C-alpha cells in the first residue's frame, strides 16, 4: 500500500473494497477475490505502475490502431505506409496526453482515453461523399500524404464538434441530455456503429479468408476458452525470493496474442514464398513484405504538432455529422465512469466529476482535431474491464499508461511496425471487435422490458432503418438534390451515418410512443447510474480537484455555483470543506477488518 498517513488510510478503508450487491454474506474465498490490491487513491510501487501501465496500453492497442487503419481507406492511404505510420504515432501521442488530462484534472478515475468508434462512422460517411472519391492513381501509390481537402475538413469538423462537448460538459448540460435518452436510444446507436463497419471488415478479411479466419479463431480461443487458465511467470520478492506467479495472460491480452501469432505465421509463409508474390493473385495482400521499406524510411523520432497536415477547414455537413458521434460518445462515457468507479473501489461519481470528465473529453477531441488524428478521444471500456481482472484500481497506473503512450507516439518506428500487419490479419481482428461493439449496444436492452411489444417495435424499426436508409443513399448518391449544396451535403452525411439514423428514430419513438418509465427502462437505467455519493467525505477524497485547487478556490463565494467544481463546507481535511450537499456525511458500511477507532469516523 502507499505511504499515506494513518488518517488517510482509515478514510480510504471505507471505499477501497469492491461493492457487493449480494444480500447474503459472502464466503471467505469470495471476500478475498473481491478485495482490491490497490484502490483508486493508492500509489503502487513504481515498477508495478510501469508493468500494469504497459498492460493497459496493450489492452487498448487493438482499438487505437484499428481507427487509423480504417480511416486510411477513406483517406486514400491504403498503400501509403509511411503516412499511415505517422497517423498511428499521432493518435498514440494524443491519446496519452488526453489520458493524463482526464486522470489528473477530469473524472480523476483510472480510465484510459483513446480513439472513438462513435466518430468513425460519421467520419467515414463524410469521406465517402461522391466528390471525395479516391483518384485511381492512389490505388497503387506509396506516398499520398494527407494534405488534402477532405482530411483537413474532417479535422475542422472534429474541432468544432468538440467545442460543443466542452460546453455541454463544463456547463452541466449532460444531466439534461441523459434525462431524455434511455436504453432504446442507446442500444441501436451503439449497435449500428459495429454493424455499419461490416464492409470494412469484409474487404480486409476477404484478401485471404484463411488468414483472417485463423486470426479470428485465435482471438476467440484466447478470450473465451483459455481466459481462466493462468500461465506461470517468474516473480521475485523478499519473502518468497524467486518463484512463479500465475498470470491470466489470455484474458488480459487476447487481441495482441492473436494478431502477433497470425502476423508471425504470415511472415513465415512470406519467407518461404508460400504466399503468392504476384500482385494480381489471391492472397498476395497477406504477405508481410509489402511495406518493407516503411521501417527503413520511418524516422526514429517524430514530433507530431497541431496543424501538421495543413490548416483545418470547416463544413456544415461535417460538423453536424460529427455532432451525432459526439453525443453518442458522451452517453457512452457516462456509463464507463460508473463502471470504472465500481471496479476501482471508488464511490459513484458525483455530478461535478461527470461534468468535468465530459468537458475534459471535449478538450481531448479538440486536441485530436488540432493534431490531426482523423478522430476524437473517449473513455475505453476495455481498460475498465481490465481493472476487474488485475484488482489494481490505482489511477497512478493509468498515469503511467498515458506517459507510455506519449513515448510510443514520439518513436516513429513504433507506428511503422503496426503498418506492416497484413490486411487479412486486420480483417480477422475487425470481425471480432465490431461484433463485440454491436453486442455491447444490444446489452443496454437489459434495462428495458423486452416483453413489451412497444419496445420490440422501437428497437427493431430503429435498427432496420439504420441499415436500410444509409445503404440506399450510398447506392443512389445523386438522389438528394434540394438545390442547396450545403443542405445536400448535410443530408448526405447524416443519412449515410447508420448510428445517427437508428439513434434518431429510437430517440423520437421512445419519447413519443406512450409507455411507462419502468417499461422504457428509464427507472432501471437511472438506478444503475444513480448519483448517491456527492455528499460524502470519500467522494471528496477521490473526485476533488488536485494540487490544492479546492483550497485556493473555496474562499470565493461563486465557487459553489460552478457545475464542474465540488460543493464545499467547512472543516474538511484539505482546509476547504467536505464535498457535501448536506451537513452530515452518509453512513456507509464499514469493512469488518477495521477496528473501533475507525468506526468512529462514521
Automatic annotation (TrEMBL):
Family as reported in the entry's similarity comment: Belongs to the nucleobase:cation symporter-2 (NCS2) (TC 2.A.40) family.
InterPro entries named in the record: NCS2 (IPR006043), Xan_ur_permease (IPR006042)
Residue stretches in coiled coil: none
Full protein name: Solute carrier family 23 member 1-like
Organism in which the protein naturally occurs: Astatotilapia calliptera (Eastern happy)
Subcellular location per the Swiss-Prot or TrEMBL entry: Membrane
UniProtKB keywords: Membrane, Transmembrane, Transmembrane helix, Transport
Membrane topology designation: Multi-pass membrane protein
